[in-house]
Each structure stands twice: as structure tokens, then as C-alpha cells.
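Let's see one such:

===
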Amino acid sequence: MTHDPAEKYTPARHPTADWQRYAGQLRAARERLQNLTVDDPAIPACISGLNRIEDMLRRPLRLVVLGEYNSGKTSVTGLILGKGLLPVHVLSNTGIPVHIGHGAEPALYGIDQNGISIRIDGADDDPLTDLAYQAIDIRLPLPWLQTHQILDTPATMTPALYAADADIVLWCTVATRAWTESERNLWRAMPPRVQKHAILIATHKDSFYSDEDCDQVLRRLHDMTSGLFHRVVLVSASASASPNTEDAPDGTPDDAQALHAAIEAAAGSIRARRLVKAQRIVQRLSRLALHEFGRNAVRPDSARLFTHWYALSDRILDGHRAGHLTIDQALRALLGAFAQIAESLQPGVIAPAGSSSHVNGQTLAASRVDSAFTNPAALRADLTAVLRMLATASRYESPQTREQREAARATLIALADLDTILKHIGDWLTAQPATGAPRTPNVSA
């Protein structure tokens, strides 16, 4: 049985990560919204946005393997994927890019000048060199390739062109003559963002006689490339002696593990940044949807209460801007006014302290309760959306319609993390010394 580093290390490198859980939760929320029969333009707009964000989270990280001629790029790619999985005898002297991604079965495609994929690994298919392909696409059924893809590039005078769309750049250099002047010049032309997650891979570790020699090479490379790479790794990935041999690339399990550890360290940082970005976008998207949802379905008898709410909240915000109210006073005044209007719309809607919120739904993003209470204008917008939702429940709606609207509201509220905020509002209001909701201060315009 051949050794497969990618399979061996998958369980350790790929726990159910936060970004995977969050993508799954987004999918569940999107599917709930899709299954509702609510005729409101805010819902399909939110569904479309959630779908794009989920795709962004699940997009495989692109690793681009770069380096000068005979620096061991294809051998490094083979070390990452596992011994014997790449057709080295075909790819060793290929002067075109080779993309490796996930597929249900092993397959080899040629990409022609029009971007059309042509299967070229069957018994009746044309040999690789018969057509002027622009790239080669290899598909392998490896779990690791579901979240990563590799672009193995030919030696070129403009490697920066391949790095433009890279998430992680792997620069290969021969350890015995590592980091030459020509390599330094090529690296200076790279986009600045590349350096943050780039990995310098020194190949041909087997050329040294002792671990001490290897340590000296690593120290020298660290000193010479300080600040230019995320990590430096020394491996025994050397090119096969002959491009026609069937032998797999050199390299030990320890080398593969060290290389995967460096890749996953960079990948973890990228995934974490994507997750934070996705959470912020989802919260903004869902809050915008909440602000629009049911805008045209507010009960006519609620118009007077909304007029009163806008008047009260405008006075509070004006008082804060003028310096008559501290931020804490302004926030408490907004919550007090909100409680008054909310109770008029639906008595009992403000949950008492210590009890659960009246709105159920799983909070998807990390709680932003503290930050939600630092911007009075933003809080007023969120509270207005909640009041609008409370005002859309018509006495004449069928039970089915009402149930659908409530399900849509609960899903959007969870996406926006407003269920936690609503619970916090109830606790804050009822924890005040006064027996009822805090009174709105008499603020002059």
C-alpha cells in the first residue's frame, strides 16, 4: 500500500472548524427562508446574499506553487498530495500550469485555448503533447482537496502573474543554493499581500549529511528572508533522476507533516479572517432585510405609535448629539421608549429579567451585545425594525400566514444576532430600580 500523507493527516488538520459550522448554519437558515411562502422582496434578497457568503466560506483555498527552473515544484506538489498520486512522468517537463482539485474519481483534462476541458487520460484519448493545451487539470478523490486546490506553475520570468489569485504562495528553492539574487528580484515583484501567508520551501534536504547542517540552512534562510514569508520549511522533495521514470518524488512522512503543518497554519489564519468578514456581512445583510421586511404590511392603527416613536427617539438622539445626555442616558432612554411602544403594540413582548426572550431562534454569529449598545443611532435603527415587525401582525391574517411571517422574522433575527440583544434589552429594562420600564427623560429639542 502506498503512503498517502494527505489521507494520514486529514483528521488532525481538519476538525469541524468554526468556518465549517458557520457555513452549515448559514445553509440551514437559507433553506428555512427558501421553504417559507412569504411574499416579501426582502426575503429573496437575503437568500441570495446568504448563498454568496456561504460560497465564499466554502471556496477552496488556492495554493500556488512557484519557483525557478528545477527547484522541485512538481515534487513538492507530490509531497503535499501523497506519494505516487501525480503522473510525474507526464508533468515533469510540462511548460504549462497544472491545476489539481477534487473529483469523484481520478481524471486528467487538457484545457484548450478556449477554456474547454478535454479528457485526456482514457485509452482512446490523444496524448498530452498532441494539442497545444493552455493548462492541465487533474482531479483526485482526496478529502483534503475539498477545501484546498493546488496550481503547479512552470518556471517563468513573471511568476507574480500566477500569484494574483493565490491564497497561499509556496515558493520552492533548492536548499544547496537557496534564495539567490534572481529569486529575490522575482519575489520583490509579488503583490504585497502575498507575503503574509507565503511559505518558503527549501528542497533537496537529502543533500546534507547531518541534522546540524539542516539547522544551519534553516537559520540562514530565516535571516535572509525575515519578514518575507510566513514560514520556512526544509524538505527532501527532489526531482526524479529521469523525467521518464515511474518513481514517485522523494520525501518522508515527517517532511509531508511539516509541510502540511505550515500550510494549515496559514490556512487557519485565512479561514479565521474569512469567518469574521462573513459574520459581519451576514449581520448587516439580515438587519437590512429586517428593516425592509413587512414595511408595507404595518397595521394602519399602528401609525400613531410609530409617529410617537420617531418623535421620542429623534429627541433622544438630538439630546445626545447636543451633549445633554451621556451615551448611557441616551441608550437607556431609547430602550425605555422602545419598551413603551412595544408594549402598546403587543402587551407582554418585553421578557422579564431571568426569562428567555419571546423570540426563539439559534444565534449564528458571535454575540455583539456590547457593541450594539455603543451607537445610539444604530440601536434606534434595530429597535425600529423590531417595532415594525411587531406592527405587522394583523388580526385578519390567516394562522398559516402569521406562522410563516413569524418563522421568517425568527430566522432573520437569529442571523442578525438580535435574539441575544432582545433578551439583553428585557434584562436591562426590568433590572432598573423603577417598578416599570425606565422613563424616557424629558429632553429638550
The two ends are 81 Å apart (CA to CA). Residues 293-430 form one domain.
